[in-house]
Amino acid sequence: MTDLITVFEPICREVEGQIKGALGGLAGIVVKSYLPQHWIFVTETETVTFAVDSKGNASVANGTSASPDVIIGIDHKYLTEALKTRTRPSFDPKTFDLKFHTAKGRTAFNFIRKRLGL
């Protein structure tokens, strides 16, 4: 079984490049208003926090954040397949539960979820 840290690492590099690029332009004002972000992914085998700080640095770590914007309860196999291919898997997830803790988290997640295959 693929661990989530391994699957998220290339996504972190990609997201970081996109966000840092956007921070320098006019759109940077809007982007900055949504940072930082902390998304917690909870599967049946592990929990990780995907985070983007106020400077656009993206990271993933085992465990949870004290200040989550979004908590996503999701089937491990579905999540890893979605993140690897960046498209929705052809099978339905056993679990998929979204809990938004902040309005900025809801907006950001809804904007980027398709890029993650969710």
Number of helices: 4
* Poorly predicted spans: none
Number of domains: 1
**Number of beta-strand segments:** 5
Using the 3D structure, state the CATH architecture.
2-Layer Sandwich
CATH superfamily: SCP2 sterol-binding domain
Shape: globular
So what's the oligomer here?
A: single chain
Structural class: alpha+beta
**CATH topology, what is it called?**
Nonspecific Lipid-transfer Protein, Chain A
Features:
118 residues; alpha+beta; Nonspecific Lipid-transfer Protein, Chain A; 5-stranded mixed beta sheet; 4 helices; 5 strands
Question: Overview of this structure, please?
Answer:
The chain is built from four helices and five strands; from the N terminus they run H-H-E-E-E-E-H-E-H. Strands 3-2-1-4-5 form a five-stranded mixed beta sheet. It has one domain (4-116): SCP2 sterol-binding domain (Nonspecific Lipid-transfer Protein, Chain A), CATH 3.30.1050.10. By secondary structure, it is of the alpha+beta class.
Reconstruct the topology from this structure.
Elements: H1 4-23, H2 28-33, E1 37-42, E2 47-52, E3 58-62, E4 70-74, H3 76-85, E5 96-100, H4 103-112
Helix pairs in contact: 1-3
Summarize the structure.
This protein is an alpha+beta fold and 118 residues long.
